[in-house]
Amino acid sequence: MSLYSAVEDEVNKWYDTYTERFETLLAEQGPLAEIRAFCMETQTPGVTATTGDKHQGRSDIEDRIAYYTDLFASLWRDGYASETVTDRTVDVLNPRAAIVQQTYTRYDGDGTVIHTVRWAYFLVKTDAGWRIDSFATRGSAPLRT
């Protein structure tokens, strides 16, 4: 049993909830108010996003909402129907910081892969609970594989 196994369990539970909320918003083409609440409840105000194409700070809530709205619209245009999440790893750095990595494979209605991408999230435990402080993709997320 590791020194931080209880923290790892806590992070995994939080991340399960985060993933479920993300998938529900995506599947239901979530309304703007729900996307706003999702951003406020899962990210720090200064969250950053880095892909193979660019690095962006997203301190403005409207900027974060626009990011998810654009991401969802892109996936819907590609016929998003479902996704699988595999090979999650959690590296607890201390009781208030952890790195979570996992791979998302997204499918259209015919079961064709839209894309597969590995994400890494730097989580911090704030007074309000765990939040994403930064996230990045391994490479770029292509529209079709």
Question: What attributes characterize this protein structure?
Answer:
single chain, 145 residues, alpha+beta, 3 helices, 35% helix, globular
Please provide a written account of the structure:
The protein is α+β, with helices and mostly antiparallel strands. It has one domain (5-137): Nuclear Transport Factor 2, Chain: A (Roll), CATH 3.10.450.50. Helices cover 35% and strands 42% of the residues. It is built from three helices and six strands; from the N terminus they run ααββαββββ. Strands 2-1-6-5-4-3 form a six-stranded mixed β-sheet. Strand 5 and strand 6 (129-137) form a beta hairpin. Helix 1 packs antiparallel against helix 2.
